[in-house]
Structure formats: structure tokens, C-alpha cells
Amino acid sequence: MYKKIAVLLLFISSSLFAQNSEIKGTILDEDNIPLMGANVFWQGTSIGTTSDENGKFTLKTSPDTKNLLVSYIGFKTQKIEVTSSTSLQIKLVALTTLNEVTVSKTVKSTRNSYTSSINLQTMGQKELLKAACCNLSESFSTNPSIDVNFSDAVTGNKQIKMLGLTSPYILIAEENIPSVRGASQAYGLSFVPGTWVESIQITKGAGSVINGYESISGQINYEILKPATDIPFFVNIYGSTEGRFELNTHFNQKYSDKLSSTLFIHGNTRQVKNDMNNDGFLDNPIGKQVNILNRWQYNDAEKGIVSFLNVRYMKDDKQSGEVSFNPDEDKFTTNAWGSEINTEKIEISNKTGYVFPDMPYQSFGFQNSFQSHKQDSYFGLNQYNIHQKSYYSNLLFNSIISNTKNKFTTGINFSYDAYDEFVGLNFSKDFSRVDNSIGAFFEYTYDNLDNFSLVAGARVDNHNRLGTFVTPRLHIRYNPWENAVIRASAGRGKRAANIFAENQNLFASSRNFSILNTSGKLYGLNPEIAWNYGLSFSQTFKLFGKDSEIALDYYVTDFQNQAVVDIDNSPQQVLFYNLEGKSVANSFQAEFNIELIKHLNLKTAYKYYDVNTDYSVGNLQKALQAKNRFFANLAFQTHILDKGQQWKFDVTYNWLGEQRLPNTSTNLPQYQLGEYAPSFAVFNAQITRTFSSTFEIYAGGENIGNYKQDNAIVSADNPFGSSFDSSMIYGPTFGSMYYVGLRFKIK
Amino acid sequence: MKKIILVLLMSIVGIAAQAQEKSVKKSKNKEVIIKVSGNCEMCEKRIEKAAFSVKGVKSAEWHIDCQDIHVYIDENKCSKEDVAKAIASVGHDTSLVKAPDDVYEKMHSCCKYERLD
Asked: How far is Cα A121 from Cα A223, in angstroms, rounded to an integer?
């Protein structure tokens, strides 16, 4: 009973204390000068006040705490335990100096992720600017994972390779909608101006199942600039010694905080006829391109909606061949050898994302794209016309299983491709057809939030030519110790080879085309199927106190079936047939990067490729593929001054070992090339001077060492003879090339 | 008669009360914010792991600059206090529950944040 009363009394007294008590005090600095506006708070509560002009304050006591926090800018915060209610005198001690520390770390232009399960590299805008020119196919020259080669000596087209395999084996997507495929396979990358691109994501190995079943050696996704975050105006002008001029302008308009749009206008032209190696053929095609994109973005953060609408038109005309060739008079004659490639592309696409407002980890995505890609072309007497009308749609749902350590993405996609394809070679045939597929996918991501994550995905597709099939993919990441990551991946890919669209470089030759199989549903051939396995290790560390990184990776692509392109049986033939035996691409890459001094970065890479296929004449290394390659890039930039002034220097060195040349031994002696092409090296360099954050000028050179391939065109003196071939390209055909350009922005 | 009215009234009040109870139905995706002290990336991993160890926690993101954790919970399965308890038990003081001193003392030196008292 007494106890109860005691407790009760205690309760009353404490609540009385709480209600009635106030504390008073004065806050002074070390020289006893009152501090006005100092903050006085009971720790962990919102009960507080500020001192008046005499440094005095009164504050009700708090039932929760006796600790009083007193703070004032430039002074050390004091914590006082208040035990009595007498008037307090609090002296604050000044911080000796008001240290303003700015922690700055330069954001790397290319980042290797240490937390993603997938071997993913992101190239940001800084990296993209290192290759000032001009379109997506040229954006990879400073990235060691992707090799850029000329595909032939006529079209000036650049071809990319990953893991030793050409671009058809790479799924190339624009904002996750497959973009360079089918008819656009050969030249599609040159139809994306570099200034439009915000960033590029490069995935080595099988990759995610979300965007389809076609990727075999990797995936490249590029993001276009977003209207909501774009600057009002941008212009880029470029001119080069080979007579190429480019103009890029972006106009951005924000209509409200939700709606914005950008109009991208690109034009390029080359009218100067160059023949630096005096073989009578243009080194680069002459031509022009107009490329317009209008992009709209609607953002409603409260409702969780983001939507994009793109409308695009592109027209590209190229003419190449002999310098004397005049298309009006000489087309389809043997007066002179010439070629024209005219492409027109129309695209409308939309994507909408919806994030559940009360569940940020759950969302829907819906993508739709309609494309029309029409190419009319001839190469000497050979003709190739293709018109692809395609529709692609993807519906995605992202959510979690019990918590965000377990995420999943599931959905369906649909694609429809109508091809009008006409081939006029040693035979003439209409290969027009319709392809369609529907598929469902599920991808599960587990992350233990620490050192392990995995992505396991599978999809089931039904394709009118490929049949019904399952595509499984698995990626694992493990961080064994600090700043290190091990990744493993395995996955299957399947695709319909568009043998003519993908091998257009062979049209510029006198080779006879023949397809040896007839039973398959794709030009008589079977679908291509391959498994890709990869293992990689990366570690960042300090070497003599410098930030360094080493990355090793090994990938194997094992074809179960391939549409083999055989140019070794005879220099007068190209054969297409189903793989009999094995076809394996092994790729090993060792990368070492170091920040030598602040702002001076060195990237180096050694690459080894063993790409071999069982051909009709036996197992051979893939022709025109260097087994050994070395890459180095040195980038230096000065410290950015107040108004944004800066110098940037960038040098890239590429060494290619010897490459096997296709068989020419049965040609006349003057048309024979030998078995191997010599090794060679190419230097590129660029200087950028930024005058302010809105204006900069750049100048650079490509192939500064002026290396030129001998005999780029076999039988250039007799282009209608049986040995003519412009596809035997192992190195640059044009000597050194220099360019200047400027960029101007209104922010 | 009066009795009947009373009974009726009572039952109406009862239904209303019941209805009210229903309207404060427990949310399956309730966002809660808890003050959590910590210092570094190691702390972040530890705090988020602890939050996820509670059944019903759907997402957990700790912000070093705000010293708070945003958690989405299924209120049928756990409460804000459960999450705070779990985080405190691995050594991090929260606005609701303080960490045991012995656990705090055992933490890595870089994780020794200034304690809330």
C-alpha cells in the first residue's frame, strides 16, 4: 500500500515538475559576449528555442530528457545535463577555423559495376565525347570490350564485334527496344547520331532475357537524351579533311513541369571524292543523311507515370565505287563499277512506365514500336532491296517476393516483321516473308545486400520459323573480399540469320552466292543456336598509392548450329550452309587501368581471340579476325576553372596482330593476297578546349600514323572480272584524317 | 419501449464502432520512417540487413545523410517497433529503441557513431 502511494506521489511530482518547471539561461562566447539566435534544444525532442539579443532563453523542461543541446554556427555544439532549475550560463567554444571541406572525386567516364550480377559497363557522356565523331558505330573506339572494323572497302561502313563475333550476335537496343536488327543490321549503327546518345550500357555474355532471345555474345543498350532533363539548345558542328561535315542541333522545350519535348535534327554530308590509295575507287562513299527525331516526355511524379513518345524520320543516300562512276549513265552497266545505297527509315515508338505510388518497388512498363526500314541498293551488277516493316511490343511487370532482396520482372512480348526482300546476284530471287513471335519471360533477381547476387531468367517463345523454344540465362556475382568481384554467366541464344542483310559487304564482289541447304525455314537454313559461358574477375586496388583496377574475363560461345558463311572454299564463291561440326569463339581479355596522377588516366587491354569454325575445307580461324590485340587509352584533363574552362587530351592506341586472309590461292598471281595480313597499329588523338560551360572546340586526328592496307580491293583494275572483291578488309583504307568541331549550349 | 430504443441505439453505436475499426484496417504497404544512427557503408549493410530480418518488411533503405531508414511494412505481420528493435539489436540506436551497450562496443571502429541518449 505504501509502495503504491509512493509511486503515485512520484508520478504526481514528476508531472508537476514537467508542467511547471522552466529553465533559464544565458549563452555567451568565450569573451562573455552574448550570442543571439543560438539554438537550444532538449536532445531527441522538438522542444526548443533560440536565444534573444542578450543571449538569454527560457525553456520548459522536458519529461523525456535532461540533456540540453546548445548550438551556434561556427561554435562547437555543447551538451549539458540539466540537474537543477537554477539559471544556467553556457559558454560556447568557437571552432578554431571554419573549415570548409569540399570532397570531390572525378566521376569516371566508363564504369565497371561492382554490384551488378551482369558484367555491365556504362559509358557516360564524357566517354562518348572522346570520339567526337559522329554516330554510334564510332562511339566505341575508346572502349576495349568492343572492336570496331571497316566491313569493306566500298561502303565506308564500320562494323562492331564483341567476343570476336560480329554485330548480328549482339542484341542492340534503343532504350530496351531492339533497334539494330534485320534489315538495319549492316548500317543501323550509323543511323544513330552520337550527340543524341545519353549513355551506353554494354553487357558482355548472354545478358538479360527481358529484351529477347537473340543476344548471343552480348547486349548493347543506348539511352537517348531525356527531354525533361535536357538543356534548351545544343549545336555541334564538325568538319574533316576527308570532306565530311556534320551538323547536330537539339531544341528543347518544357511546356509545364510535366510535359517537355526535344527536337533533334542531324544532317551530314560528304561530297568530296577521295582516292588516297590511287586504286581508282573512292576511299569513302559520298552522300548525305537527314535524321530527325522528335521526342516527348510526360512525367507525373505524384501518380507515378513516365511516358515517352518518339517520332523519327531518316533518309540516307550513299554512292561509292569507281571515281569516274556516274549513276545516271553507268548504273547497271560495265562502263564503271559503282554502288548506291539509299535508306529511308520511319519510326514511331512509345513507352510508358507506371510505379505504384504506395509501393515504389512495384511497376508496370509498356513499350511499343513501329518501324519501317527501306533500303534500295546495288553493288556493280548485284542488286539488293529490302523493306522491313516491324512492330514490337513489350509488357513488363516488376515486383518483389516478400521483400526487395527478391525482385522479379515478368512479362510478354510480341514482334512482327514483314520483309520485302529482293536479291539480284548470280541468281535473282524474291525472299519476301513474314516473321512473327510471341514470348513470355520471367527473371528473378536475388541480392543479399552484401556480397552475393544472382539473376536467373528464362523465356518461352513461339516463332513461326524458329518454333517453340526455351531460353534460359543465369548470372552470378560474388564479392570474395573488398573491392573485388567475381562473375559467372551462362545462357542460350537463338536467332534467325538474315544472311543477305548481314553479309552485304560480300555483294561488292564477284563472288557467286549459293545456299547449300534447302530444308530449313530461313533461306533453307536452320536457326542459329549458341550457348555462351563467361567468367570474370575485377579488383580495384592502390598501386604505389594510385587508384588502379585489373579486370580479367574469359568467354566461350559454343554454336550448336550456325549459318556458316564460307568464303574460303573458293575466292569466286560464298557458300551458306548449316554448321556441321563445331564452331567456337573463345575470348580472353585482361584490362589494367590506373590513375597515374590526378586527372591522368591510363586504360590498357590485351585481348586474345580464338574463333574457329568447321568449314567445308576444314577447321579454320575466322578470317579477318586478329588473334591478338592490344589497346591503350591515355586521357588527361586539366582542373576545371571557375567559368568551366578546361583542356582535355585523349590518345588511343590500337595494335592488331596478324589476321588470316580468306583463301585467294586459286586467283591469278596478281590477285593473290597471301595467307596472313601483317600486324599494324593505329593512333587516334583528340584535344578539347572548353572556354566556358557552354562553349567548346575540339580537334583531332584518326590513324595519325597514316597506315593504309595494301590491295584493299582485289582486282580493282578489273572490277567486272571474276576476282573482284572489296570485302577483304583488315585495316584502314583511308590514311590519316583530321577533324575540327565545336559544341555550343544554352543552359 | 425505452429499453428497445436503448438496445437499438447500442447496436447502432456498436456497428458504427465496428465500421470504424474496419476503416483503420492494417495496410499491407505502410511506409514508416525511423531515425537510425550510423556512420558508414558497413553500417548501411548492417542496418538494412537487420530490417529485412523482420518478417513483413518489404523494402528498407537507410539514408546516411538523413540518418533515417525508410521501410515499407505489412502491418499485419510486423510493426514499426519490431523493425526498430531488430535494428537496435545489431548495435544501432533508433528513435524508438536504443542499442545494447555491449553490442555497440563490439562494432568496428569506423561504425562507432555518436550515440543517441
From this structure: 14
